[in-house]
Fold each of these.
Amino acid sequence: MYCKECGQKLSLRFCENEGLVPYCGQCETYVFPQFSVAVSMVVTNRAQDKILLAKHAEDDDFILFAGYVRKGENAEKTIPREIKEELGLPVVKAKYMSSRYHATKDVLMLNFIVIVEDAPIKLNEEIAEAKWCTPEDALALIRKGTTAEFFLTNAVRELKRKI
């Protein structure tokens, strides 16, 4: 790991109340890890009895909808922007569920249940297919052992409490 300011190789140094933290001897500063933040969305209809899954153009697996939080944007603004961009649907309501670090892409995922307006879907070029499923079918379609499965399982549990 290297310093983003000067390019020097970082060493680990003890930092009180933090433990071992990367340190730049040239800049004489601790360099705390930085990573991207994204939202993961379990998209439901108004009745909350159907879940919308997506297939990206370059992937065969069904996944949850997701998008990166842009600089200066909060998660609450990212959700309707991403849903509008990918599906052309207005968001009615979003409820925060949980977060999880996704090491594969070095991103902190913030998961929400998102209720969308019952309207025709207009897919953008990122999405090859979108499919409304029962909660049980959604759980069967999502790839096992993934962050998406973790979020979907928690969301289905929450949705069943309401139905």
Amino acid sequence: MVLVCMADDSSEVDVLRRVYQAFNRREFESVLSAMRADVEWPNALEGTRLHGRDAVREYWKRQFESFDSTVEPQAFTPEPDGRTAVKVRQVVRDKTGTIVVDRMVEHVYALCDGLIASMEIRNPKT
């Protein structure tokens, strides 16, 4: 189930920009504080969904033990259902610094009361 709350698009974009900046600085507690306690988040490593901030925190801990990634937003687009799609350049490096992934993806967010309620990853529209 996707929870969508109607909000001001510009304020959602501001929240998401700050979240991406904090994530790339590895300020995970700041990112987690921008999420609802019951956030739904994709587990891209295993193809499942995570529930709650603690699960997301543990996922990131495991993720960054194996590789290093950055995500740079390129465009923000409102979706018809009220969510926000973010076209993102994702660069993943192994522990030696070698790039193993450099691609565009879309992150689709539902925000409620200024907090991230859910995120999904999908291939960008062509």
